Amino acid sequence: MHGSGVLAVWNDCAVGSEETYEKWYQTEHLPERLSIPGFKNGRRYQALRGSPQYFTWYEVGTPSVLRSAEYVDRLSNPTAWTKKIMSGVFLNVSRTICKRYIITGEIFGSVAITMRLKPNQSCQKIHAILKELYNPS
Q1: Which of 29, 76, 99, 101 is buried deepest, with most CB atoms within 10 A?
Q2: Per residue in 54-77, pLDDT tens?
């Protein structure tokens, strides 16, 4: 079952801190996020080159999950390890709450292409094109 909400996070990692970042993400951060009611799954991608180095996609039941008391509490009360990571390892962060409008296929791919756009009329045009391509009447 797919959720209609997505937390999209793009970020870099401080040079030389990749092992620390990976250990924190796998052993603390991802399990902590997935324990929050409404979080369905998380998937992280690494850039082939360039910046941002990482893109993480958390699927949630609805975008409102990302305003829930449980989630806000985790953001407001980070662990000591998370504070350390956020203070110099987790860099150039862009975090966006999204609503998914279209889904096609049954599985996630091993490759992701992301676009970040400013809200304006071109976003509406892109949405209309995608809707026609993936949800033809």
Answers
A1: 29
A2: 999 999 999 999 999 999 999 999
Q: Within a domain: residue 37?
A: yes
Percent of the chain scoring above 90 in pLDDT: 66
Q: Which domain holds residue 79?
A: 5-111
What is each CA distance from 76 to 23, 71, 119, in whole angstroms? 22, 9, 28
14-44-74 Cα angle (round to 5): 80
Among residues 100, 124, 33, the alpha carbon closest in space to that of 43 is found at: 33
**pTM of this structure:** 0.81
The total number of structural domains that make up the chain: 1
Pure H helices in 62-134 = 69-76, 80-86, 121-134
Question: How many Å apart are CA 47 and CA 58, to the nearest integer?
Answer: 17
